[in-house]
Specification:
Blueprint (H helix, E strand, L loop, with lengths): L1 H22 L8 H23 L7 H6 L1 H29 L17 H27 L4 H7 L1
Helix pairs in contact: 1-2, 2-5, 4-5
């Protein structure tokens, strides 16, 4: 949580300073786009990992209220399967395909390599995928609890 919070705080401060320098002093800061892209990548990766660990991603509870717990278990499993599929693809793409030798994987102004940030984002998405696999398995083997039906009503 601290990594994401620090990254978003730095991103806000950097954006504020860049806007003030550009519009009030007519003196833009070189490289703010580079730093903003890198900080946003760190923030996104930290948010994905935190959300996966603490089950704090956005969810909609309309299905369980209308159709009951059985359909909710099915749709939860379907969404976890989709998360696993896309997570595996994204992790593979970020590790193996994002920075090939034919691609320029550096920022435009400061020539900062994107590669370590791609790897950090891939690790965060990989963690999300592992959590989804674990939750898929747990939900597959556990029996529906009696209070699930009461909560849906």
């Amino acid at each position: 949580m601290a990594t994401g919070a620090i990254a978003i705080l730095l991103l806000v401060i950097l954006t504020l300073i860049a806007v003030v320098m550009r519009y009030f002093f007519n003196n833009p800061i070189s490289g703010t786009e580079d730093l903003s892209a890198i900080l946003l990548t760190v923030f996104a990766g930290a948010s994905v990992a935190y959300g996966a660990r603490h089950k704090s991603h956005v969810s909609v509870d309309i299905i369980s209220r209308i159709f009951g717990p059985n359909l909710t278990r099915f749709t939860d499993q379907l969404m976890r399967a989709i998360v696993v599929f896309t997570g595996v693809l994204a992790t593979y793409a970020l590790f193996a395909k994002a920075c090939g030798p034919e691609k320029a994987c550096i920022t435009g102004n400061f020539n900062i390599s994107y590669r370590p940030f791609y790897y950090a984002l891939a690790a965060a998405i990989g963690y999300l995928t592992l959590v989804a696999i674990y939750q898929f398995w747990i939900n597959l083997v556990k029996a529906p609890e009696p209070h699930d039906e009461e909560a849906a009503e």
